[in-house]
Design brief:
With 410 residues, this protein is an alpha/beta fold. The protein contains 17 helices and 13 strands. It has helices at 14-24, 49-59, 75-86, 91-94, 105-120, 139-147, 168-177, 200-212, 231-234, 236-243, 255-258, 275-290, 299-308, 311-342, 350-353, 365-375, 395-408; strands spanning 31-32, 98-104, 131-135, 153-157, 159-160, 165-166, 183-187, 216-221, 248-253, 265-271, 358-360, 377-378, 384-386. It has a 7-stranded mixed sheet, with helices on both faces. A two-stranded parallel sheet has the order 1-12. Helix 3 packs across helix 13 and helix 5 packs across helix 6. It is globular. The termini are far apart.
Length: 410
């Protein structure tokens, strides 16, 4: 008998299982709208031109080697990444109360932040502190905080299925009723999976309540620049909260906006009350990193750092990011127009009202099953689709598939 005979089979990760099923499908018109990565109009991964340029610069730089980075990561990457989130002119940066930890992607940033909060937030070993995540949210949010040791993870109202938009009243009610010092995980922009973001005025209302009720903000910023094409617009909520004096954490990912998915380039930005407080916070995060991955990898961080710290490369990168964002916006416009032209039952304005890579279509589980089995269009069970999976070659087929599904399956 094996010592591991009682280990149960874990369920597969849904998005990767969907991709595996797609690959096994031999249908000539199959479409994958599940994968969470950018695709060109030929449905191929895109290596950003600026990334190729910087990779060549790194190869030719004789001063570089493969020595360990500091535990907290490449200093010039960390500072540049935080400036992208907070702005070059952020008072918090000039007051020396902003620091950062280079992490293994956005997931790593969330985990280091969660581990720190569980150990030190509002006291010590706070496993019972409520952590609120949006309903729905990216599936890793629940898992990361649960594995970090939090015992009380709660949903907060976010998506209104009837109007296919933000449930602001429900969200406000949850903020008002949450126990003081609760932790709220907020999507900085391009909410995953709904693609629905609060307006600036709605963000102001959310911030006012959180400030008044002493609620802690943990931003997840996975799509800055990629959502609207503007780094400033996509960071508006983060910068507004910082301007109000919040102590907060920001988990940043450079997977989407640099196309560096497999390099796992992430950053955890810390906005502290003062510089002395920041020093102590980073010292504890250093201890957590030491026993987690010890030292971060350098290649992806060097690519991002060289790009962000060079005015010429930075401008080129912004152009690359806008190219990706514009293609997504174009696909949104075209899909909505084609559904309206077909006379597809229901309202489809939410497709263009939403933003970022994902769209919450409103298709129910039975309709999703029909789309996959009968139309060979693969999407998440929640009805979420990746707009980058749409191309000029398949959008007519996808629109017709949605039309047939909505018409025939209730």
């Amino acid at each position: 008998m094996s010592l591991f005979a009682d280990v149960p089979q874990a369920p597969p990760v849904a998005v990767f299982k969907l991709t595996a099923d797609f690959r096994e499908d031999s249908h000539p018109q199959k479409v994958n709208l599940g994968v969470g990565a950018y695709r060109t109009d030929d449905c191929l991964p895109w290596v950003l031109p600026v990334v190729k340029k910087v990779e060549r610069l790194i190869v030719e730089d004789e001063s570089l080697n493969h020595e360990y980075l500091p535990i907290l990561g490449l200093p010039e990457f960390r500072s540049a990444a935080s400036k992208v989130a907070l702005g070059d002119d952020s008072p918090a940066i000039s007051e020396n109360r902003v620091g950062a930890v280079q992490c293994l992607g956005g997931t790593g940033a969330l985990r280091i932040g969660a581990d720190f909060l569980r150990r030190w937030y509002n006291g010590t070993n706070n496993t019972s502190t409520p952590v609120y995540v949006s309903a729905p949210t990216w599936e890793n949010h629940n898992g990361v905080f649960a594995d970090a040791g939090f015992k009380d993870i709660r949903p907060y109202h976010y998506w209104d299925g009837k109007k296919r938009g933000l449930d602001l009243d429900g969200l406000v009610d949850d903020l008002e009723k949450a126990p003081e010092h609760s932790i709220f995980v907020l999507h900085a922009c391009a909410h995953n999976p709904t693609g629905t973001d609060p307006t600036p005025d709605e963000w102001k209302k959310i911030a006012e309540i959180m400030k008044r009720r002493n609620l802690f903000v943990f931003f997840d910023s996975a799509y800055q620049g990629f959502a609207s094409g503007s780094l400033e617009k996509d960071a508006w909520a983060i910068r507004y909260f910082v301007s109000l004096g919040f102590e907060l954490l920001v988990a940043q990912s450079f997977s989407k906006n640099f196309g560096l998915y497999n390099e796992r380039v992430g950053n955890l930005t810390v906005v502290a009350r003062d510089s002395e407080n920041l020093t102590r916070i980073l010292s504890q995060m250093e201890k957590i990193v030491r026993t987690t991955w010890s030292n971060p990898p350098s290649q992806g961080a060097r690519i991002v750092s060289k790009t962000l710290n060079s005015p010429e490369l930075f401008a080129e990168w912004q152009g690359n990011v806008k190219t990706m964002a514009d293609r997504v916006l174009l696909m949104r416009d075209q899909l909505r127009a084609k559904l309206l032209a077909l006379g597809t039952p229901g309202t489809w304005d939410h497709i263009t009202a939403q933003i970022g890579m994902f769209s919450f279509t409103g298709l129910n589980p039975k309709q999703v099953e029909y789309m996959v089995k009968e139309r060979h269009v693969y999407l998440m069970a929640s009805g979420r689709i990746n707009m980058c999976g749409l191309t000029s070659k398949n959008i007519d087929y996808v629109a017709q598939s949605i039309h047939d599904t909505v018409t025939n399956v209730q």
